[in-house]
Amino acid sequence: AYRKQDGRILLFRPVGNALRLQVGVERMCMPSPTVEQFVEAVKDTVLANQRWVPPAIKGFLYIRALLMGSGPVLGLAPSPEYTFLIYVSPVGNYFKEGLAPINLIVENELHRATPGGTRGVKTIGNKTG
């Protein structure tokens, strides 16, 4: 979420992020919130934390959605229940120059995810150090 010069707070691609979450949780065999539930949860969380949205051009409010198994079972089986939550954190501009264009190289030969695995899905299991 970011603040405009006139003080309004805008969200960046909330529907696209909801759809991305749905793809990921489907791949992980988990139930998914609807797009409407996701967007409403993001709006509610940002509204509750609007004082933490930096001034225009100074940064943004980072938003992270999380869906996790939260039942009383630990094992190789679907969880009997799931918890969906949104958390936020104010952040400054990533680059000290601000939002200036950058040069980069796009790699299209190598993949960070293994074939048949979680593919391009954001999961805790495909985060490596």
Automatic annotation (TrEMBL):
Q: Report the domain of life of the source organism.
A: Eukaryota
Q: Cite the entry's keywords alphabetically.
A: Pyridoxal phosphate
Listed GO molecular functions?
branched-chain-amino-acid transaminase activity
Query: What GO terms describe the biological role, i.e. biological process, of this protein?
Result: branched-chain amino acid metabolic process
Please name the InterPro entries in this protein's record. Answer: Aminotransferase-like, B_amino_transII, BCAT-like_N
The keyword Membrane appears for this protein: no
Reply yes or no: does the keyword Membrane apply. Answer: no
For this record, the Gene Ontology CC terms, alphabetical, are: chloroplast
Q: Which metal ions or organic cofactors does this protein require, according to UniProt?
A: pyridoxal 5'-phosphate
> What protein family is recorded?
Belongs to the class-IV pyridoxal-phosphate-dependent aminotransferase family.
- List the protein's name: Branched-chain-amino-acid transaminase
Per the UniProt record, the source organism is: Cajanus cajan (Pigeon pea)
Give the organism's phylogenetic lineage: Eukaryota, Viridiplantae, Streptophyta, Embryophyta, Tracheophyta
